[in-house]
Specification:
Largest sheet: 7 strands, mixed
Distance between the termini: 41 Å
Helix content: under 10%
């Protein structure tokens, strides 16, 4: 079993910064992709950023230049540094981790953390 624990959400003023963390634990053999998605009220869940095992990253156009995704392989942890936050960044943010245990592939989601950008 693989568990994900997210932290770091909260309320911030426009232009402010937040850092999200997502730690994976359990019977992990390898991790291929770690990513962050978000879902705003009344909208579909969308990819925000992802990082693969080799270190390549992908960002949605709406966050390029403002958000940075990184990972600590030793801790099986992925981070999302969010700068210059805008009200439209308000959403529940979910981490997603895909990889392998010794027995099987896994594709797990975190519980979600609320990010609210408001003055």
């Amino acid at each position: 079993q693989v568990q994900l624990v997210e932290s770091g959400g909260g309320l911030v003023q426009p232009g402010g910064s937040l850092r999200l963390s997502c730690a994976a634990s359990g019977s992990i053999f390898s991790i291929n992709v770690m990513g962050w998605h978000r879902q705003a009220p009344g909208k579909e869940r969308e990819l925000v950023a992802a990082i693969i095992s080799g270190g390549n990253t992908k960002y949605s156009d709406s966050v390029k230049g403002r958000f940075t995704i990184s990972r600590d392989n030793a801790k099986n942890t992925v981070y999302l540094q969010m700068n210059s936050l805008k009200p439209e960044d308000t959403a529940v943010y979910f981490c997603n981790v895909r990889g392998y245990t010794i027995a099987t592939m896994f594709d797990n989601w975190g519980q979600g953390t609320q990010v609210t950008v408001s003055s």
